[in-house]
Amino acid sequence: MTVLFGTLGWRPQSLIPSVKSTEGLERVVFYHSAHEKSRAARAKVMEYCNALGVPAAAVEVSDAFNLFQIAERIRVDVLRARKDGTPIRFNIAGGTRLMSSAALLVCILEGIPTTYVHDDTFEEVHLPLFRMSYADHLSAKQKQILAFLVAHRERPPNETGLAKALGVHKSTMNHHVKQLLAKGVVEVVPDPKDTRAHHVRAAPGAELLVS
Amino acid sequence: MAERVLISTFGLDAEKVLRSLRWVSYDRLALLAGGRSAQEPGFRRIEAAERAAGTGLEVVAVDPFDFRSCFEGALGAIRRHRKAGREVRMNVSGGTKILADAALLAAFQEGVEVWHCEERPLRLPVLRGVTFSDGLTKAERAVLAAVDRPRPVSSLVARLGEEGHREATVRSAIAGLHGDGLLSLSIRRGKAVVSPNPDVAWFVRTLR
Q1: Predicted confidence (pLDDT) per residue in A66-77, tens digit
Q2: Over the stretch B167-177, which tens digit does the pLDDT of each residue have?
Q3: What is the complex's ipTM, to 2 decimals?
Q4: pLDDT category of residue B204 using cuts at 50, 70 and 90
């Protein structure tokens, strides 16, 4: 049995070929915007799934241009579906460019088989994806630092505060921060209240790298 | 400091590229675009801006409706500029969705910083310098390099054994790559045969 995920724009034809081609389809979960045309496309997809007797869940995203918000929502749903051990596939053809990119991002980070549907021919194209195992490229301490910074995104600490919070020496923390900076997952920004001081904060979207 | 090149996807809307030029620092600009895009007024706006800045504009022509063409164009541009010692960044705001997604995948594969510049600039969470190939074991790389055509598993195991790879490791690598859809396995005349998966052979070649 397979769970089919998808992004949907204004054309139901961008998703329906994947519903047709998925063997042992257990259910369909798809994301669409609040646009009237997207809602009309949702109705068509739901009608088709109902006719097949396949349970379908439509998720209306509040902001179809907020890539990270959409990616986080998709990732939560995907991980929940994964817990049951059911295979997943994802059709990223529909929706806004940012919805499609958000879905692709999750597929790369989670190693989910991904498909496209060609705009004119409606033919399915399988994308060659395998998992980008970023976890293997961050040390345990780096992951811990990143998780802390994600959790404290609203009030980013300075390096000394970060070292204290995680119980490591200041110079050790400086080494870790430099490495994370080189990998592009943290940013060092000036403290608006004190120009001599700097805060360390998680780069945008780092939430997606922290499990 | 290394020269910075911004590789940007482009369709018709110049604003999507011009926005990225305001937000992402760069020295040179390369556009990934379909052939017809170069005849559009938007292209001329970008070209005029770059001319005013005194820098040239590189155009990498792709078929914006063909994922493979877009991916190979993006990957080729990234590798070429890297080889020339430049720091590469990618903007995936312009052009078709296929072009944007293919460029995004190429940026992930090469560990290149990637941006979406729509209403505001967004940098995507790519680990700089970490590539898809880094996730492959030595044995998986050796198997991918050796399977350029259908080969019996037993002879592949023997061949890679001569290169110092243990049988169990090679078999596990074959199973893993098959599980990822990068190789195909079949039985021919009673023998297990491993072949390149024709659907993704073009992608696998970029990993070797």
Answers
A1: 999 999 999 999
A2: 999 999 999 89
A3: 0.82
A4: confident
Residues 6+ apart with CB under 8 A from A121: none
Nearest Cα to Cα of residue B90 among B80, B77, A97, B98:
B77
List of chain A residues whose C-beta atoms are within 8 Å of the C-beta of residue B101: 92, 100-101, 104, 116, 127
In the predicted model, is pLDDT for residue B208 greater than 70?
Answer: no
| The residue type at B137 | T
Domain hosting B163: range is 136-205
For domain A134-209, give the CATH number. Answer: 1.10.10.10
Q: Cα A32 to chain center, whole Å? A: 15
| Dihedral, CA of residue B59, residue B8, residue A100 and residue A87, to nearest 10 | 80
Q: What is the CATH number of the domain that holds B69?
A: 3.40.50.10770
> Do the domain assignments include residue B130?
no
pTM for this structure?
Answer: 0.86
CA distance A98 to chain B (A): 8
Beta partners for residue B28, in sequence order: B5
Q: In CATH, what number is assigned to the domain containing residue B152?
A: 1.10.10.10
| Token output for B118 | 């729509």
CB contact under 8 A, A125 and B67: yes
Using a CB-CB cut-off of 8 Å, the residues of chain A touching B97 are: 93, 97, 100
Asked if the C-beta of A107 comes within 8 angstroms of chain B's C-beta atoms, the answer is no
Co-location of B161 and B112 in the same domain: no
pLDDT per position as a tens digit, B89-120: 999 999 999 999 999 999 988 999 999 998 88
Ranges of each domain in chain A: 2-127, 134-209
Domain boundary among B66, B95, B123: B123
Distance of CA A93 to the CA centre of its chain: 15
